[in-house]
Specification:
Layout lengths: L1 H29 L12 E4 L1 H5 L4 H9 L4 E5 L4 E5 L2 H10 L4 E2 L1 H12 L8 H15 L2 H27 L4 E2 H18 L11 H19 L6 H7 L2 H28 L11 H9 L8 H32 L1 H15 L8 H6 L3 H5 L2 H13 L5 E6 L3 E2 L5 E2 L4 E5 H4 L3 H4 L12 E2 L2 E2 L20 H18 E5 L21 E6 L2
Parallel strand pairs: 1-2, 3-9
Antiparallel strand pairs: 2-3, 4-6, 5-13, 6-9, 7-8, 10-11, 12-13
């Protein structure tokens, strides 16, 4: 018994010494970071705080931002600066673009999932992908091909909801939207018919779940100071991330292999409408050949841009218009007015096919409602860069070389100093001037980034979202299954709803 008591005493003492030593080390590392120097942003905590508030991280950041437009969290090796100030964001993303990069810290965190894709690189790799993507997005071929794809998949989605409505079933619209946009991005991006929405592709559904889980686990690294150690030992969250990435890789490499085989078939040239085919064609003339690994990284970047952003935004959009039924009815009235429909259309596919660019471009109120959704629920809630040299932000605060600088789009939408006293209200009219949509500065409304790295797929995203919204709202009225249920988000790179959005649909026709 004495030996047992002695062993417990020694163990407790060693554990106490370990804790004291750890926090002593942290204190030593954190001192010297200008904690109380007014030239630097005020310190509101350390990166350890993010672990405590992880499940509601963006609201935690918003509460701080209401007191400090620019603030710091300390880490042993760097300072993480957060800002909601539009002038600071313009400075970083545009004015001093060359002085800020993705930074080794950000690259290390996302590399396992996104590799050398366009969102995870700087310099020549970024320029090469940006140049190719910019050219392809500007072609009429891709624009027409994408619109046709969006219409077909919107009609398929409406058909699925019609069947669920007929059998009086409640449904998770976020799940349906994810499948719809996944089908669309694979057709437009890679020329592949997944039919994920039809439920016929088990591999596609496994891929979608693995990709979403990998997204969440990758973001967890920003708060987990021990993720590299866990990765080395393949334990915990890092073991789960590795397993999910293996599922993602198996699926994506299969897509690439199939595409290479198709392109080698004589006579297939006339069908090269998708982005992957055109990238492969372009790479034949480029000294930097695209390996399967490089193509894999590019594909996953398009995936998060084409699937997550549109599906997430539409999910929050349907949540908002279910909460605000008058706005839902205003959008329906605009659809009928713009399309000048006297008799109600009853065929979903026929209706979808008459949604031309001319019609879509006249939908000012719908465009405003989608933009208002993005203001409050941005597809990418937090994004950032790294200072390559010491700098002074427009608000007067200093940055040291190596500091991270993050802009919090989620918080910005809730700042009264940016949007007025009604900042937290869902009000599409704030975007309209005499009924015409009027955009704001991309550094105030930063959902599509800004400066040289502004989102190339912005118009594509709006086109897809408007087509889906118009088809669904023309044929169905939507209500929440439970008006009192609190809807919140999963903390990840993109703003997913936690647990989905469960709705009931009622026929309008």
């Amino acid at each position: 018994m004495d030996w047992l008591s002695l062993t417990i005493g020694i163990t407790a003492s060693l554990f106490l010494l370990l804790i004291i030593g750890f926090f002593s080390l942290v204190f030593i590392l954190f001192t010297g970071k200008s904690l109380w120097d007014p030239q630097y942003p005020p310190v509101t905590g350390t990166v350890f705080d993010q672990l405590i508030y992880f499940k509601r991280l963006y609201d935690y950041q918003t509460n701080i931002a209401r007191k400090h437009r620019t603030f710091r969290l300390l880490a042993p090796d760097l300072s993480e600066v957060y800002t909601t100030d539009p002038q600071n964001i313009e400075h970083v993303l545009k004015t001093k673009f060359e002085d800020y990069s993705k930074g080794d810290h950000n690259k290390d965190i996302v590399r396992d999932l996104f590799g050398n894709g366009i969102f995870a690189v700087d310099g020549d790799m970024w320029r090469q992908q940006r140049k190719l993507a910019s050219y392809e997005f500007s072609t009429r071929i891709l624009r027409d091909f994408s619109c046709t794809t969006f219409r077909k998949n919107a009609a398929k989605l409406a058909g699925a909801i019609s069947e669920l409505m007929r059998t009086d079933q409640t449904f998770n619209i976020q799940d349906l939207l994810m499948k719809c946009t996944l089908d669309s991005i694979f057709k437009v991006g890679f020329g592949v018919d997944l039919n994920c929405l039809g439920g016929k592709s088990k591999e596609a559904n496994q891929f979608m779940k693995a990709f979403d889980d990998a997204n969440e686990l990758t973001y967890w690294r920003y708060c987990d100071l021990f993720w590299q150690l866990k990765r080395a030992f393949n334990i915990g969250s890092e073991a789960a991330l590795k397993k999910n990435i293996e599922i993602v890789d198996t699926f994506v490499y299969g897509v690439i292999q199939n595409k290479r085989e198709l392109l080698s078939i004589e006579g297939y040239i006339n069908e090269k409408e998708d982005i992957l085919s055109r990238f492969l064609m372009a790479s034949e003339k480029d000294p930097v050949k695209m390996t399967d690994k490089y193509l894999r990284d590019i594909i996953l970047s398009f995936m998060i841009a084409g699937k997550d952003t549109s599906a997430n935004t539409l999910s929050w959009f349907f949540y908002m218009i279910c909460k605000h039924q008058l706005i839902q009815e205003k959008i329906v009235a605009e659809i009928r007015d713009v399309m000048k429909i006297n008799e109600k259309q009853t065929n979903i596919a026929d209706f979808a096919m008459i949604l031309t660019e001319t019609v879509i471009d006249k939908m000012n109120y719908l465009h405003a409602a989608l933009t208002e959704t993005l203001r409050l629920y941005p597809a990418v809630p937090v994004d950032g860069k790294c200072a390559e040299k010491d700098d002074i932000l427009p608000d007067g605060y200093r940055l040291k070389k190596g500091d991270g600088i993050y802009y919090i789009a989620y918080s910005m939408g809730r700042m009264t100093y940016i949007w007025g006293e009604d900042a937290e209200d869902f009000r599409p009219e704030r975007w309209l001037n005499n009924g015409v949509f009027t955009p704001e500065s991309p550094f105030k409304f930063v959902s599509f980034h800004g400066g040289p790295r502004i989102c190339l797929g912005k118009d594509f995203a709006y086109r897809q979202m408007k087509i889906i919204a118009m088809v669904l709202l023309y044929f169905f009225k939507f209500k929440l299954e439970d008006e009192n249920k609190q809807v919140t988000y999963r903390t990840m790179l993109t703003l997913h709803m936690k647990g989905g959005l469960h709705l009931n649909a009622f026929s309008r026709v």
